[in-house]
Design goal:
CATH superfamily of the largest domain in chain C: Thiamin diphosphate (ThDP)-binding fold, Pyr/PP domains
Largest sheet of chain C: 7 strands, mixed
Oligomer: heterotrimer
Shape of chain C: globular
Radius of gyration of chain B: 17 Å
Largest sheet of chain B: 2 strands, antiparallel
Chains: A alpha/beta, B alpha+beta, C alpha/beta
CATH topology of chain B: Alpha-Beta Plaits
Structural class of chain B: alpha+beta
Order of helices and strands of chain C: EHEHEHEHHEHEHEEHHEEHEEHEHEHE
Structural class of chain C: alpha/beta
Strand content of chain C: 15-25%
Number of strands of chain C: 15
CATH class of the largest domain in chain C: Alpha Beta
Number of helices of chain B: 2
Shape of chain B: elongated
Order of helices and strands of chain B: EHEEHE
Distance between the termini of chain C: 47 Å
Chain lengths: 192, 98, 391
């Protein structure tokens, strides 16, 4: 890993962009990384475009300013691409991961100025099938690890299983659903 | 009277004992003095009830006098003394300081 | 144990481990979570605290004063307008020498109404007789809150420990937490010398002082604030000896041989450290490193002016960064006090002021770099500059 790795999450209020950033940071913490996870706080309105951020490093992180030039952008809601510039500030060799049922090529055509690698995964459908409701942020963690190689997938899966077991002792279907959705997103994500 | 310096006073303005109000002699604020007539008094204790400075002295449910160290001379006792009794009269302090 | 916590979670966790006798509070963004999380600890029976949900911050601080007078270890939390509403009670808490511990989250004061970080709230309370500690990150907030209990009880002064609103309060970071027993041992048991509930030794608290006593009692509080410095140092050092993280009045970052330096409080210092490292390595133009340094002031009340003067005396050019303005037309509160601290030096550094980040305005690497650039190129003609404001 480079000295410092920055991620920007795009979602809509209520979709769990902040939770995704926290979950990912938590997983990274489990691998011994130093982490940060923080949202961009504006008026909190359901459905409004929101952002959340991660910093990861093998060294302690002292930076406390906003993330201006992320290494990775994750888009939880594909409709955001039409309304905001999700590539803003993204590093030249950066990566974009989008939750959509479209192929990467289709999304690339919508972002003509972006020259880096673009990944897509249908996390909404995966979460509906595996969890019975649309919570795309959990499967996106699996896809993000595939797209970035930032964490060891098996260890992350094990760590998540442990945490879910603690939280949902009496609901094994929630544990299995989450684990399966992360696994499926890891396998199904496509990059171009 | 010399007062303590900052290093000797209890901190935070604390007063470390109870009942210190009795040490504060407020009787010299008085310009009118309540004068009590023991023979007229029926010990109804109206004055004792109303006195704002707890300056009516009572023993065994009988009025025994007035605490002139703390009485400020407000005259409530004389005013509350029943009209048919009139055991307390307000007299100017000047009368007593001649 | 390394965990991931937001600043608010870190402070709430410290409060759980401190397990105070009384917490009286009223919620306000961005400090709400501290008491919200703590109240769940109360509901779950994880602490023995008497929790009072007051009807305003004024009442919350009043309840804290009452409980502290009754001999209880007392804590609260607030931010911005909440601290402002506590105003008259803040002075009463310090005047009565109540060791209340306040977990503060820095947020701009209205108007215009704003919920984001600047230091105008606590800076406004700088003359209220409260010890003030400004933290860089969640770790320091956690560590400082634990130390604060001991500092307050030994100094017999109230103390506020603050983090930068949202940046730290809502940002999740890696940090180390102590075992419950370690915290319990460190803070010890609170044994107040006097208590209103000690009916065998009746006392009066809050009696009136006329012209004949007020000055003496204020003089005592002034002395207590002077003594607090040594107490902060001692407890910060003891904390370090026990747990490996020492704390002093300020942190010097690559300051020893610095030719230019920034003085700053709170989370911005962390960002500035990255700039210092960059400048040391590559300078303004690649190839020629610059001897940049940083002093992060942590203890603002009492103000460690001798130590600051000594630490800054060798540095020719200094910029003080203030996250609030005194509206005195002569700069921010940190600037005016540091400038005053340097007055007695034989050779005084050139010192200028930058007001930045008001109302949560982002302070990034480029802005901080521009301050060092001004210092490096001798652009110090203007006393006060405003960083990141649209002209």
């Amino acid at each position: 890993m480079e000295k410092l790795f920055e991620i920007r999450w795009h979602g809509r209020g209520g979709q769990g962009a902040k939770t995704a950033a926290i979950l990912f940071a938590d997983a990274a913490l489990g691998e011994g990384k130093y982490i940060q996870a923080f949202p961009e706080y504006g008026p909190e309105r359901m459905g409004a475009p929101v952002q959340a951020f991660n910093r990861l490093s093998d060294e302690p992180i002292t930076l406390h300013c906003g993330v201006d030039s992320p290494d990775v952008v994750v888009v939880l809601d594909p409709s955001l691409i039409e309304t905001i510039d999700v590539t803003q500030g993204l590093k030249q060799n950066g990566v974009i991961l989008i939750n959509t049922n479209q192929e990467p090529k289709v999304m690339k055509d919508k972002l003509p100025n972006f020259g880096g690698k673009l990944w897509t995964v249908d996390a909404s459908t995966i979460s509906k099938q595996e969890l019975g409701q649309e919570i795309p942020n959990t499967p996106m963690l699996g896809a993000l690890i595939k797209a970035t190689n930032l964490l060891n997938f098996e260890r992350m899966l094990e760590d998540t299983h442990k945490k879910l077991t603690k939280k949902f002792k009496s609901k094994p279907e929630v544990i299995d659903g989450n684990i399966n959705s992360i696994k499926r997103a890891y396998q199904e994500v496509k990059g171009e | 009277m010399s007062k303590e310096g900052w290093q000797d006073l209890p901190i935070g303005g604390l007063i470390l004992e109870g009942g210190t109000a009795t040490k504060y002699i407020t009787g010299d604020w008085r310009s009118l003095r309540p004068v009590w007539d023991k023979d007229k008094c029926i010990s109804c204790l109206n004055c004792w009830i109303y006195c704002p400075d707890s300056s009516v002295l009572v023993e065994d449910e009988k009025m025994t006098g007035i605490d002139y160290d703390h009485c400020k001379g407000c005259g409530i006792c004389a005013s509350e003394c029943p009209p048919k009794v009139q055991a307390i009269k307000m007299v100017t302090e000047a009368e007593f300081r001649k | 144990m390394r965990v991931a916590k937001t600043g608010n979670e870190a402070m709430a966790e410290a409060m759980r481990q401190i397990n105070p006798d009384v917490v009286a509070a009223y919620p306000i963004t961005p400090a709400t979570e501290i008491v919200q999380i703590f109240s769940s600890f109360v509901a779950d029976g994880l602490v023995n605290t008497e929790f009072i949900a007051a009807e305003s911050e004024h009442s919350a601080m009043s309840a804290c004063i009452g409980s502290c007078a009754a001999g209880a270890r007392t804590m609260t939390s607030t931010s911005s307008q909440g601290l402002a509403l506590m105003w008259e009670m803040l002075y009463i808490a310090s005047g009565l020498r109540m060791p209340i511990v306040l977990a503060e989250v820095n947020r701009a004061l209205s108007s215009p109404i704003n919920i984001h970080c600047d230091h105008s709230d606590t800076m406004g309370a700088r003359d209220s007789g409260w010890i003030q500690i400004y933290c860089e990150n969640a770790q320091e907030a956690y560590d400082s809150l634990i130390q604060a209990v001991r500092i307050a009880e030994e100094a017999l002064l109230p103390i506020m420990v603050s983090t930068d609103g949202f940046i730290i309060s809502h940002g999740m970071e890696s940090m180390e937490v102590l075992e419950d027993a370690q915290v319990k041992d460190f803070i010890g048991e609170y044994k107040p010398e006097h208590s209103l509930l000690d009916i065998d030794h009746p006392i009066t608290i809050g009696a009136i002082d006329f012209t004949d006593y007020y000055f003496e009692h204020k003089r005592q509080t002034i002395e207590a604030m002077r003594n607090a410095k040594g107490i902060v140092a001692k407890i910060g050092q003891e904390f370090g000896e026990k747990f490996g993280r020492s704390y002093g009045f300020f942190e010097e970052y690559r300051l020893e041989d610095a030719e230019i330096a920034i003085v700053v409080l709170g989370s911005t210092a962390g960002t500035a450290k990255v700039v210092v490292d960059e400048l040391r390595e590559t300078g303004l133009k690649p190839g020629k490193g610059i001897k940049a340094g940083l002093l992060r002031l942590r203890l603002f009340r009492p103000f460690p002016y001798q130590e600051l003067a000594q630490a800054l005396s060798r540095i020719p050019r200094i910029a003080v960064m203030d996250r609030s303005d005194s509206l005195n037309s002569a700069g921010g509160p940190v600037f005016t006090e540091i400038r005053s601290a340097l007055y007695d030096l034989d050779t005084r550094p050139k010192i200028v002021n930058y007001i930045y980040g008001l109302g949560g305005r982002n302070i990034d690497l480029a802005q901080i770099r521009s301050v060092y650039e001004d210092l490096a190129t001798n652009k110090t003609d203007e006393l006060v500059r405003y960083l990141g404001v649209r002209e």
